[in-house]
Amino acid sequence: MNISSLTSRMRYGLVVLAVAIAIITVFLFFHFNQSELNEDSPHGNDMSMDKTGHGNQEQIIEGNLELAHSSQTEKSTESQNMLFVSPKRLQSIGVTFELAKRQAVDHVIRTVGRVEVDEKLLSRVTIKLEGWVDQLFVNFTGEHVKQGQKLFTLYSPELLATQEEYLISLQSSQTLGKSEFPEVAQGARALLEASRRRMLLWDIEPHHIQDLERTGIVLTTLPIHAPQSGTVIDRTAVTGLHVKPGDELYTIADLSHIWIMGDIYEYEMPLIEIGQRATVTLSYVPDMTLQTRITFIYPTIDPLSRTGKVRFELDNPGEKLKPGMYANLELKIPLGVRLVVPKNAVLESGERQIIFIHLGGGRLEWRNAKIGQRSGDWVEILEGIQEGEHVVTSANFLLDSESQLKSAVGGMPGMKH
């Protein structure tokens, strides 16, 4: 071993010793600083937790895990109703949006009504004794008559016999009324009164009876008068007709006030109330508009058409509306302020109604909705959405098809990623 070799080994050892000292120095420096930081920190004692502290930390960790699991479950449930379509594709298929809002809603009911006679202004002319029509003064249907106007005369043998009986009773009452026997006088007066009452029950006017008493001339025919003013809408009386008590010879109706009978579907009946106003229009007189109101709601439903009858009443100046005519009825029923969406936003899917909500950025969510009343272009929403949300109003079917395709593909084995 020479001196140069020894010198090389000494140099190598000094280098190794210098590196070792440097490493130890750096280690001691960082260890010292870390200890000072732990002592100065207010939470320095937390680094030496006891068993109780470890238990609390484990409970917190478990709670966080449960919360994370619950949040993940909720996101999974929401994702089932979520659909992502790029904004560019939404624009290309024509998807439009509109806000769900609260506004005053009117429910409009349109139906066709039939003009009918006001039954309270209807009279039927009958007789109460047997006879024959002698002379006819009103001889065609549709003729206007006034109250008290002579319609026809009736020949009745029974009437002749009663008048002659009345004249005899009148003469007997005048003769026997002065008898000294009270029973005889009373019987004569009773017979006269019975004959007079019988003629009054046959609708013989009191002035006819007075003429009979004054002249003593028996009427061969009895005049029958119109009980009210109006239009003859039915007539069976003809000259020489044999009639019996109860036969209807004329029907007279006052057409200055008429009824319109409308049919309302049973699902709309709960909205109908007496006193509601309606507009009447005629297809054959487009420039005429009339106002009417509901006066009666019939208590039954037609089992075939599933409609209920509603009666409207109105004045008929000039008798422009005639029985048998058809008229258009429109009722506008205010429902108050309701949450509504355009009717195009509701997608009918069997027993469900679906609405697509636009959440922004191409994210769409479909929800089951519960709808209420329909009003023109609007539909009331009872459950499913909130005011201010953006609902899809067009291309719903395309979105629904895409969402169903997504669900079908996602449920196929091997298609989940």
**C-alpha Rg (nearest Å):** 51 Å
Low-pLDDT stretches are 32-78, 408-417
Principal-axis shape equals: rod-shaped
Give the biggest beta sheet: 6 strands, antiparallel, barrel
Looking across the biggest beta sheet, what order are the strands in?
3-12-15-14-13-16
The N- and C-terminal alpha carbons lie at a distance of: 73 Å
Helix content: 25-40%
State the helix count.
7
List how many beta strands DSSP finds: 21
Mean pLDDT: 78
Which H/E pattern describes the elements? HHEHEEEEEEHHHEEEEEEEEEEEEEEH
Strand content: 35-45%
Structural class: alpha+beta
What would you note in describing this structure?
This protein has a 6-stranded antiparallel β-barrel with strand order 3-12-15-14-13-16. A 4-stranded antiparallel β-sheet has the order 4-11-9-6, with no helix packed on it. The longest helix is centred in the N-terminal third of the chain and has 38 residues, at 3-40. 33% of the residues lie in helices and 37% in strands. With 417 residues, the protein is of the alpha+beta class. A hairpin with a 2-residue loop joins strand 18 and strand 19 (363-375). The chain has helices spanning 3-40, 51-80, 87-92, 157-176, 182-201, 206-215, 396-410; strands at 82-84, 97-99, 101-117, 122-126, 131-136, 144-145, 150-155, 221-225, 230-235, 242-243, 248-253, 257-265, 277-282, 285-301, 307-315, 326-342, 347-349, 352-360, 363-375, 378-383, 390-392.
Key features of this structure:
single chain; 417 residues; alpha+beta; 7 helices; 21 strands; 37% strand; rod-shaped; disordered C terminus
Sum this structure up briefly.
This protein has helices at residues 3-40, 51-80, 87-92, 157-176, 182-201, 206-215, 396-410, and strands at 82-84, 97-99, 101-117, 122-126, 131-136, 144-145, 150-155, 221-225, 230-235, 242-243, 248-253, 257-265, 277-282, 285-301, 307-315, 326-342, 347-349, 352-360, 363-375, 378-383, 390-392. The protein has 417 residues and is of the alpha+beta class. The chain has a six-stranded antiparallel β-barrel.
